[in-house]
Amino acid sequence: MASQSPLYIGFDLSTQQLKGLVVNSELKVEYIAKFDFDADSTGFSIKKGVMVNEAEHEVFAPVALWLQAMDTVLESLRKQGLDFSRVKGISGAGQQHGSVYWSADAEELLAKLDAKRSLEEQLPGAFSHPYSPNWQDSSTQKECDEFDAVLGGPEQLAQATGSKAHHRFTGPQILRFTRKHPEVYQKTSRISLVSSFIASLFLGHVAPFDISDVCGMNLWNIKKGAYDEAILKLCSGKFDVEDLKKKLGVVPEDGGLHLGQVHQYYRERYGFSADCTVIPATGDNPATILALPLRPSDAMVSLGTSTTFLMSTPNYMPDPATHFFNHPTTAGLYMFMLCYKNGGLAREHVRDAINDNLKDTPSQPWAHFDETALSTPPMGQHNANDPMKLGLFFPRPEIVPNLHAGQWRFTYNPTNGDLTETTDGWKTPQDEARAIIESQMLSLRLRSRGLTQSPGNGLPPQPRRVYLVGGGSKNKAIAKIAGEILGGAEGVYKLDIGDNACALGAAYKAVWGIERGEGQTFENLIGQRWKEEEFVEKIAEGYQKGVFELYGQAVEGFEAMEKRVLEGVARE
Ligand SMILES: Nc1ncnc2c1ncn2[C@@H]1O[C@H](COP(=O)(O)OP(=O)(O)O)[C@@H](O)[C@H]1O
Ligand SMILES: O=C(CO)[C@@H](O)[C@H](O)COP(=O)(O)O
């Protein structure tokens, strides 16, 4: 007989899909429902979840699409037999940086939701603008230049807000909105992030921003724990800064705060109980670090379409090349993040070139790529005296470092520091299988090395464990090379939850928000219930003496190579 433990829902509203995942108090997944925007929606001209205006480099999503998705996911959970009356908490994970513009009628429409009708039928009038700018948007170069300048330079902006200005960050997006749609901006009553939009739907009124996700706006002064007045002034454009403050609202510090009970609509339509509580939804990356009791010395690498590298750390060390956010649950901790546009797609290019070269597409499409990568020695050095082969593989413009699309190949001699841009000695595409994995992992090691410490026993600074999530985490060749480069005193692990890390993290956040004892941290509560043997699998060794140190030399060459390429591009 099914247990009658309380249940918790985590919603993941990502670029391409909405998921609803239900766990019990023991953290066991009981139900999952998924709505794929391209495959399952009706009435929207979207591709990969978004619409594009190439001329202005705009990427955006229709908000009504998300309403249709929420109606369908709730219906699907009902059809699967979920007893909604057992659900005690709801939280969520939203794609970061996207903003939702609410109309003057929003609060009334949310409050008066009629259980006989769908959200999609009732809420379109709640938005002053039907679209939400997406994280892939790059229309805000002018605004980013202004943001970077407002406190003196990108370093100062990163120091204050955790990041230099980025096209996708919500502050530059809002400033552009005030210019492109001034009348609509004036008619906008509130602005939500995708995360607080999810919470708003369930509360029946506009929810505040989440303490972690607010750091993806370039507006929040992380150390002061308040909006930065000078930046807000810039962001309000020609409009009143006090009015912008009202549109943004206050930001509660507690990530486990009880925002309120689920709205009557959900009680009548689905059978939620009156004591089901809404806990702040956060960004998808902050939610991902909540998918396990991550320790400050652990690292997570998400190998999806893009690559993200996440760590939880007590050290706030902002830099224009990286991101810091408040930790979503634990005051005094921060989330460190690197976000690359070139991840899975770039690896697929090399994989396809290798398959084409062999005139063979095996049923397991990664088989030749993996075999080639593993039979190539580190940096293609067959002998210790051979130069190291290093490259950058960016089929799409990259964020880290900020470079246009391109491919660059070098050789590097660590003994004398000789660095030459050349394809001499490179066997293409064979050498590229290992080189592309090395390139991606060396970039992570370069940018995270200031945050790692020695795990003891005389070992060099490195993560305690490296956890892999996302589509690429199925690949053991990538895991092996990741361990050789990043280390990991205890090894490289895969989270056994397929591609559901952020929905799971959101559901765990709801468990913690409702069931925590006085002062009990997320790590403590989830740590006590976490079943290591069921939830993670060790898939590769981490630190290996000799090879880790060899890659330490390669990091130096890699850093010099990036610098050389950036200088070259600046001269173009
Ligand atoms: N066996 C595999 N080896 C390497 N990469 C893989 C493998 N299986 C899937 N992938 C990669 O996973 C990526 C998709 O990951 P996923 O986490 O689902 O993406 P998203 O970020 O869109 O949610 C694709 O780019 C694909 O190349
Ligand atoms: O922009 C960022 C992080 O800064 C992205 O990681 C988005 O948060 C993307 O979410 P997905 O929908 O791809 O998961």
TrEMBL record:
Which reactions are catalysed by this chain? Answer: D-xylulose + ATP = D-xylulose 5-phosphate + ADP + H(+)
Under Pfam families, the record lists: FGGY_C, FGGY_N
Places the protein is found? Cytoplasm
Q: What's one GO-annotated cellular component?
A: cytosol
Provide the Carbohydrate kinase FGGY N-terminal domain boundaries. 135-290
Q: Which InterPro entries match?
A: ATPase_NBD (IPR043129), D-XK_euk (IPR042024), FGGY_C (IPR018485), FGGY_N (IPR018484)
- Which key words are in the record? ATP-binding, Carbohydrate metabolism, Cytoplasm, Kinase, Nucleotide-binding, Transferase, Xylose metabolism
Q: Quote one Gene Ontology molecular function term.
A: ATP binding
EC annotation from Swiss-Prot or TrEMBL = 2.7.1.17
Which family is annotated? Belongs to the FGGY kinase family.
Protein name per Swiss-Prot or TrEMBL: Xylulose kinase
Q: Which organism is it from?
A: Penicillium brasilianum
